[in-house]
Amino acid sequence: MSTDLKSKFLQVYDSLKSDLIHDPAFEFDDDSRHWVERMLDYNVPGGKLNRGLSVVDSYKLLKGEELTEDEVFLACALGWCIEWLQAYFLVLDDIMDESHTRRGQPCWFRLPKVGMIAVNDGVVLRNHIPRILKKHFRGKAYYADLLDLFNEVEFQTASGQMIDLITTLVGQKELSKYSLSTHRRIVQFKTAYYSFYLPVACALLMFGENLDDHVQVKNVLVEMGTYFQVQDDYLDCFGAPEVIGKIGTDIEDFKCSWLVVKALELANEEQKKLLNENYGRKDPGSVAKVKELYHTLNLQGVFEDYENKSHEKIIKSIETHPSKAVQEVLKSFLGKIYKRQK
């Protein structure tokens, strides 16, 4: 990722933010303008920006030549729409999970002057997306397709979040409800569509493609998203907090994590009993017992094996795609996440 692209990307953020806090549809005063600006700066640009930058990268690879100023701006704007979508989900997600930190700083709702106003801020973030799309894409042939795409992916993500939350409720009564197929469904809907498919779909639309012709691309990206989430589950337990920027709490939170699903598959009756007694408890002793069991079952080795097999499978399905440019897009995506540490 070239630094000039990232600085260009951040310039576009400033431009979009300025549009939004001077949106003619609302009468801003200094207080409301200041609030929105501070809320945006705190929640939107702070992450790794991978999803947003991927739109620009993907579009470049599809076009295969230098982008015009206008194309760079539009690709960045779509990238930011994904970052806005992400911010909206995370702000609300942190409230639901009662989290404390996000990206190495306190969650937005934890700030003394914010609290539950964060719920409405989430709604505002969500509403910024169609404002950005309207201002910059209204005249484009693919405008309706863009709106459809964002609506559809938002629905899939919210529904994935729902299965995650209700599965966790049932799981607390009995861990046996947790299975690989449940994990896969949650991940596919909650993460894979918006993090992996959406950036590439945005680039394809800008490039004039019809998304119905790219079901295979969607499938490969959902597969990558699943692999990415398994890595995430793994890092939540085995990653270093100073590297990943947060302290993992999947065990305490009774999450349907890939690790617990695998542990249930591999455990004997006695080990299952230990899991049932300790998984989802807040006290450090219980968490330590679960982690110890993960070590005993060699989940680190099981994960490495999964990682290699998954990578191989994804590469094979990418290489069957007829378009070399699309293959490049998919491979560049995979390159960013394979064997990542954070």
- Please state roughly what percent of the residues sit in beta strands, choosing from under 5%, 5-15%, 15-25%, 25-35%, 35-45% or over 45%: under 5%
The tally of strands reads 2
Mean pLDDT: 93
Helix percent reads over 70%
Derived from helix and strand composition plus strand pairing, the structural class reads mainly alpha
Strand order of the largest sheet: 1-2
Pfam family, one: polyprenyl_synt
GO molecular function, one term: metal ion binding
Family: Belongs to the FPP/GGPP synthase family.
Keywords: Isoprene biosynthesis, Magnesium, Metal-binding, Transferase
General description of the model:
- The protein has a domain at 1-139.
- A two-stranded antiparallel ribbon has the order 1-2.
- The model has no long low-confidence stretch (mean pLDDT 93).
- It has 14 helices and 2 strands; from the N terminus they run ααααββαααααααααα.
- 72% of the residues lie in helices and 1% in strands.
- Helix 1 (3-21) packs across helix 4, helix 4 packs antiparallel against helix 5 and helix 7 (180-206) crosses helix 8 (215-238).
- The protein has helices at 3-21, 30-43, 50-63, 69-96, 117-137, 143-171, 180-206, 215-238, 241-244, 258-266, 269-278, 284-296, 299-319, 324-337; strands at residues 101-102, 105-106.
- The chain is mainly α.
- The chain is globular, with a radius of gyration of 21 Å.
